[in-house]
Amino acid sequence: MMKYFIYKLKFLTPVRFGTCNAGAELAQGKMACTADTLFSALCQEWIAVFGQKGFDELIAAVQGNQIFLSDMFPWCGLELYLPKPAMPPSVRRNTDVEGLKDRKALKKLVYIPVSRFADYIKFLHNGGDLPWLEEIVEPGYEQLLYRANIAREQDTVPYPVMVYRFKENSGLYFILRSTEYWRERFDIVVESLGLTGIGGKRSSGLGKFELAEESFETGLYDSDIMLEKMLLEDANLYMLLSVLSPGQEELGIAKQANSYYNLVKRTGYVASPDYADTWLKKKPVVMFGAGSCFPEKIRGRVLDVSDCGGHPVYRYGKGMYVGVKV
């Protein structure tokens, strides 16, 4: 039986997640990572723990719709956060944004507390103020670290690296939809990944974490009770909680008039030593981002983004959703 499980990560060191933007990439960063980045990290650790046979079983289970992952989102205390829905101005037609005292804060709003999500949807229709904006607690802060690029017979060149440092009693969480069988294996791999680290610059000690508590089924606290209801809810819109790569036959759903979405370009390098003698880039792909809303759930797919390497490279692009009544 498929269930939803929550993994709350508490970071022991700063963590670095890149932005995929051109330019000064190391000097830019973000708080959390997408499901495809999480899946790639889990795959590398899965091979180390369970070997190639165990990894092949994992890929088969994901492609067979036995495993679904969300992006990683922040948590603070007992509150879980969700991405802001990608609603266009036509949905907010009655919203007097100019009259908001907190309009600058609203523009910067990226994540919404689960306990306030219904209030936010009402605000999109009715307008008015969002007095609870001041209740939102930042889970941490950005920090620039400086590293040295040391080359032979050349001067040491320092360069900045943007990282995110989480405060006490806060971190990131992700949702797994699967069975108890796979949940037990995820527990092992996630605990092992915490020692290895997630994100960039792991060789510098970044991205190490532990589970804030053991993985648990939704319905344990007030916040995830509300989240569970949304995950199971039948609604007229479904908000995406993961990056998504639809199949060709599914693109028609996204073209419907009541679909609202954002697009993200995903790229990066292959870290596997068995792939090539040097680091090679993955094939770039454009995906729907978390917060996108569709009238139907789009299943999505797993892509092979290898390019002239020694083995397939999988990019996760399956959908996980919460129901949104508008």
From TrEMBL:
GO biological process: defense response to virus
Domain of life: Bacteria
UniProt keyword annotation of ATP-binding present: no
Domain Csm4 C-terminal: 234-324
Keywords for the protein's UniProt record, in alphabetical order: Antiviral defense, RNA-binding
Pfam families: Csm4_C
Coiled-coil stretches: none
Entry keyword annotation includes RNA-binding: yes
GO MF terms, alphabetically ordered: RNA binding
Family note: Belongs to the CRISPR-associated Csm4 family.
Protein name: CRISPR system Cms protein Csm4
Species the sequence originates in: Thermincola potens (strain JR)
